[in-house]
Amino acid sequence: MTLYEFYGDGCTHCKTMAPKVEKLEEEEGIEVEKLEVWNDEENQEKLKELDDGRCGGVPFFINTESDEWICGEADYETLKAWANGEEVEN
Asked: pTM higher than 0.90, yes or no?
C-alpha cells in the first residue's frame, strides 16, 4: 500500500493540509509519500495517471490499496480514515 499526497509548491490548500499530514505521520506512524507537481514533470505524469479525472488539481491524496481518494482540503478525521483505507466522501 502506498499513500500519496500530490501538492503544489505555494498552494494555499496544500499548506493547510501539511500540518494534518504531519500529525498523521507522527501520531499514527503512517507514512505519506509527498510529490510536488507544479515544478516536477515526472510527478505531474504520476498525478495524471493516478488521478484519472477524479480531482484535476491539488492537493490530491490517494490510497493505492483501497483506491480511496481526497480532492482538496479535508479535516484530520477524514484524512485518518482515508489513510486507513476507509471510505471517504468526496
From this structure: yes
